[in-house]
Amino acid sequence: MPLEAGLLEILACPACHAPLEERDEELICTGQGCGLAYPVRDGIPVLLVDEARRPA
Questions:
Q1: pLDDT for 1-56, tens place per residue?
Q2: Which residues touch 48 (CB under 8 Å, ≥6 apart)?
Q3: Which of 10, 14, 36, 49 is most buried as measured by Cβ atoms within 10 A of its Cβ?
Q4: Can you tell me the distance from the alpha carbon of 53 to that of 6, in angstroms, rounded to the nearest whole number?
Q5: Whole-number CA gyration radius for the chain
Q6: In whole angstroms, what is the distance from residue 17 CA to residue 29 CA?
Q7: What is the DSSP string of 1-56?
Q8: Which pLDDT score is estimated for 1?
Q9: Strands across the sheet containing 26-29
């Protein structure tokens, strides 16, 4: 389920503060060198660094 456009505009990566981009069921950090992927569970972004997936 896509997030509301207004919500996505104000969310930022908690690790580096770069904007996030929605892909599938994740929010991907757009910051160079970061790239953490945060899960979206039941339409709610889980913006915890400990829950994020590291880039491959």
A1: 677 778 888 999 999 999 999 998 999 999 999 999 999 999 899 999 999 999 87
A2: 14, 38
A3: 36
A4: 24
A5: 10
A6: 9
A7: -PPPHHHHHH-B-TTT--BEEEETTEEEE-STTT--EEEEETTEE---GGGPBPP-
A8: 61
A9: 20-23, 26-29, 37-41, 44-45
Report which residue type is found at 9. Answer: E
- Phi, psi (deg, nearest 5) at residue 33: 85, -10
Q: CA 42 to CA 54: how far, in whole Å?
A: 21
Instruction: Tell me which residue has tokens 């929605």.
Output: 22
Dihedral of CA 33/22/48/18: which sign?
positive
- What pLDDT is attached to residue 56? 72
The token pair at 20 is: 């996030």
